[in-house]
Structures are given as C-alpha cells and as structure tokens.
C-alpha cells in the first residue's frame, strides 16, 4: 500500500472511531499517530484529513445525501460514509488532491475496509459528486467565508 494511501486509511480509522464513540479527538489522533509508524509529512497529511473533515461533517453529509438518495445517510455503513467524506473533502476543499486521485483512493479504501459492494457504491456516489465539483467547491467557499466573518 502506498504511503499516502496508508495515511488515508489511518485517517479513516480515526474518523470511524470518532463517529461511533465519544472519545476525545486529541486522544484518537495521538493513539492513531503513535500506532501508525508514519513519517512526519504523512502524519501531517493524516492530521489534515481528520481535522479537515471533522468540523464540516454535516456539510459533507448534505452533499453526499443529495447524491445517494436511495440510501439515507444514517443507513450507509459508517466506513463508507467516512470514505465518502474524505474523498469529498479532498476534491472540494483540499487544493492539492486531483479529483481522479481522490476518487481512486476512495475506491481503494472501500476495497480494503468496506463490504464487497462498497467500492461500486463509493465510486457511483463520488462520480455523481464529481459532476458537480465546481458547484460544491463554490458552496464550500461560501461556507468558509461566512465562518471567517
């Protein structure tokens, strides 16, 4: 597994844990980092994913729900939901991850951590989201500019 893919997997594990428990964010980050064996730049990448996704989960979920109407978000597996959140964050907010890379990495995570149908589901939802990438980026820019004010 590539180093950045491994860092995404560890971020996925952290987000999963934060989704299903009341563990403090700092504790989860510290434990995942100490167990990871990641190089410093990959630890920073891992942290940027978790700390990027966490505060905007509801906004990410809104876009995901719009593109998976047959699957209410509370019925989507926690792993799949977090894979989708990471990929959407990467291509809508992180400015250094190309769209195709975000989608391919999400599908790879779904193959490793999800059910047999997860890769196809993740690819389908992200494909729909990708068609609206510019609109989604604009929406997140508006959200961020409101938060700054």
Task: Describe the protein's architecture and organization.
By secondary structure, the protein is mainly α. The chain has one domain (3-148): NusB-like (N-utilizing Substance Protein B Homolog, Chain A, Orthogonal Bundle), CATH 1.10.940.10. It has eight helices and no strands. The chain has helices spanning 3-20, 25-36, 40-53, 57-67, 78-92, 99-113, 118-131, 133-148. Helix 3 packs across helix 5 and helix 5 runs antiparallel to helix 6. It starts with a helix and ends with a helix. The mean pLDDT is 92.
Rounded to the nearest angstrom, the radius of gyration is 15 Å
- Assembly state: single chain
Dominant shape: globular
Sheet with the most strands?
none
- Whole-number total of structural domains: 1
Per DSSP, what share of the residues sits in E-state strands of 2 or more residues? under 5%
What's the CATH class label?
Mainly Alpha
CATH superfamily: NusB-like
The stretches of 5 or more residues where confidence is low (pLDDT under 50) are none
Discrete helix count: 8
Q: Name the helix and strand elements from N-terminus to C-terminus, one letter apiece.
A: HHHHHHHH
Query: Which structural class do the helices and strands define?
Result: mainly alpha
- By CATH, the topology is N-utilizing Substance Protein B Homolog, Chain A
């Amino acid at each position: 597994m590539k180093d950045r893919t491994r860092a995404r997997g560890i971020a996925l594990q952290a987000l999963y844990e934060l989704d299903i428990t009341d563990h403090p964010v700092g504790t989860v980050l510290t434990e995942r980092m100490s167990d990871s064996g990641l190089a410093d730049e990959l630890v920073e990448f891992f942290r940027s994913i978790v700390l990027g996704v966490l505060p905007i989960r509801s906004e990410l979920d809104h876009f995901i729900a719009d593109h998976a109407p047959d699957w209410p978000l509370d019925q989507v597996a926690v792993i799949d939901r977090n894979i989708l959140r990471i990929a959407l964050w990467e291509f809508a907010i992180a400015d250094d991850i190309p769209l195709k890379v975000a989608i391919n990495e999400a599908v790879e995570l779904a193959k490793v951590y999800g059910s047999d149908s997860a890769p196809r589901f993740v690819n389908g939802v992200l494909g729909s989201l990708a068609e609206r990438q510019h609109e989604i980026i604009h929406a997140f820019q508006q959200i961020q500019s409101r938060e700054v004010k």
